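ugh finaly. both done.
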Amino acid sequence: MTKNKAASVTLDSTALATFPKPAMVIDSTGRVVAANEAAGGICEAMDQGQIPGINAAVGRALASRRSQSDVIMVPGTLGPMLYDVNVLPNTDGCALVLAKDVTLESNLRATLVESRQRYKDLVEISTDFAWELGDDGSFVFVSPRGALGHSADHLVGRKPADFITEQAGDDGLLPFVSEMPVEEAEVWMRRADGTVACLLVSSSPLLDADGRCRGSRGVCRDVTKERERDAALARANNRERLLNYIVRTIRDVVDPTDILGIAAKATARALGAAGCQIFRHDASQFIPAATFGKVSVAQSLLRQMPDAEIFEGVVDGRPALGSITRHHHDVNGSIVLWREAEDLPWGEDERAMLDDVANQIGIANEQIANHERILLLSRTDALTGLFNRRAFFEELARRFSRLARDRRPAALIYVDLDNF
């Protein structure tokens, strides 16, 4: 209960001296009447006029007859020091001033605020997104920028299971529900546009005082582009490996007439096809040159060849994939691959692979054509187109051997042209 009757308070000097914090008695003129040892620095600063705030607080307390509080800064050898000051007015025209050093608390508070702001800025500008799950396993916090095209408000209150795309052999919920810290677990989640994204999730469980899990907290990093680049590089390396196998197989063939047969076999095996056909182009038609495995009639596909580099279709219920072959931009053949009806459809990798193989087949077709031209020139007369002497006697011996084997008669007609 407040008493209206004024009372004079006398402060024992021993009590002032033994007070552990700065304590002073200041009169209405701002003069320090008494002070303990802990207030020495403050008194010195007051004498130099460096902290007028104390005198102002004392003046307000004496005028209002009410206690006053303030924060003052006192210069020190190690830097400014902050004090919480409480002023208690007395009836004798003096005031008791009690000060508390709050420099450490103030610095810690400022550091904490700065640290929180720093982390807040990092979270807001980072492409990664931070999250926290509550007791019920739903998001209670998501970075302000949101994630995967979803806004933060759309994610809060939802569960990770609403966005996770199941992958064979992977438990996508593991980093969100684990009671142990998880580092860079790979998870596939759906974006707002329906596409999937690959995330690396690091998380830590939130435990209460009894050690029970009350949620989790973590961060997700979108590595979809990295995974797509890795997959594309792996496919390119695989195509290069298969192409090298086909090219090496073709180059190891000694007889040019066997090249296309070996190439058809190697290509079918490399691309997982049930059969392969290679054609050569003569005038306006494609002529079968080599066949491996189980094939079908390719005429419907061959009719498409002049209009497209890569073409595909279904013939007799079997998916077929083909490509024309060129040498110096001139069409010199084609290659067609076949799969069984129950096999997987042709993919982008097979199309790219066939395009590379077609380039090699085009070179092989040209080599065979050159070989045939050289063989023809070596056996015929350039002027008449007839067999030369060596070819004539080789052909004569071959036919005599066949007639003798078959026991059939024959006639040899010799025509001599004069003056030719």
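ok and the 2nd:
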Amino acid sequence: MVFIFSYIIILELGSLLYGSYSSISFFIPKNPKNPKNPKNPKNPKNPKNPKNPKNPKNPKNPKNP
């Protein structure tokens, strides 16, 4: 008998949690974190303005003065 009552209580708690989650998630907008085809990627393969260029135009310490 105790197992039956505990099983019923667990089922009721689960249904209450599911109902509250579904009602809350209805108001939250869905924004995917990792889209498959991003329009503006954070790390492009060919950046226009690299932070550390390989051949700088004005080096700070030239080898041949």
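summary for the 2nd one i guess: DSSP finds one helix and no strands in the chain.
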